[in-house]
Amino acid sequence: MTGPSRIPVVFRRLTSEARIPAYATDGDAGADLTAVEPVTLQPGERALVRTGLAVALPAGTVGLVHPRSGLAARHGVTIVNAPGTIDSGYRGEILVNLVNLDRDAAFTVEVGDRIAQLVVQEYVHADFREADSLPDSVRGDTGHGSTGGFGTTPSDTFEEVTTP
């Protein structure tokens, strides 16, 4: 097995508190993004949290800003628009749209706290073409939850139960 592909990504610190995005371990897909200002989120509140960084992603790549699982599990803090998208042409500051989903406790982000993960990946552009019909597929046009889950299998059937 080989390691991940590597590409150079140029960034600029917009404040002295900004930290270079860093991978916690060699095998991680996401590099940690940190806060450059303290922000307190009351229950149900959201805020754009500054990272103090701007990046120049290479053409053909996108930066995806993902939540940190520890923040979500321990504090109910996640990202509203997860994953956030940083297009290769964007040169502004990376802002993380955090939300506190905890019903009771406020959460304070301190300067230097890891608040999100940045995943950089290649993408393809679709050439969209309108059609009068679409090709058939196994799934067809069935909706949300139609492929199972929650202990069901495709062979499960639902029968009405009546009591005498």
What would you say this structure looks like, in words?
The chain is globular. The model has no long low-confidence stretch (mean pLDDT 90). The protein is mostly beta strands. The protein has 1 helix and 10 strands; from the N terminus they run E-E-E-E-E-H-E-E-E-E-E. The strands form 3 sheets. A 4-stranded antiparallel sheet has the order 1-4-8-6. A 4-stranded antiparallel sheet has the order 2-10-5-7, with no helix packed on it. A two-stranded antiparallel ribbon has the order 3-9. The longest helix is centred in the middle third of the chain and has 7 residues, at 69-75. The chain has a domain at 11-122: Deoxyuridine triphosphatase (dUTPase) (Deoxyuridine 5'-Triphosphate Nucleotidohydrolase, Chain A, Distorted Sandwich).
What's the gist of this structure?
This protein has a domain at 11-122: Distorted Sandwich (Deoxyuridine 5'-Triphosphate Nucleotidohydrolase, Chain A), CATH 2.70.40.10. It contains one helix and ten strands. It has one helix at residues 69-75, and strands spanning 10-13, 31-34, 39-41, 46-56, 61-66, 77-79, 84-86, 93-100, 107-109, 114-122.
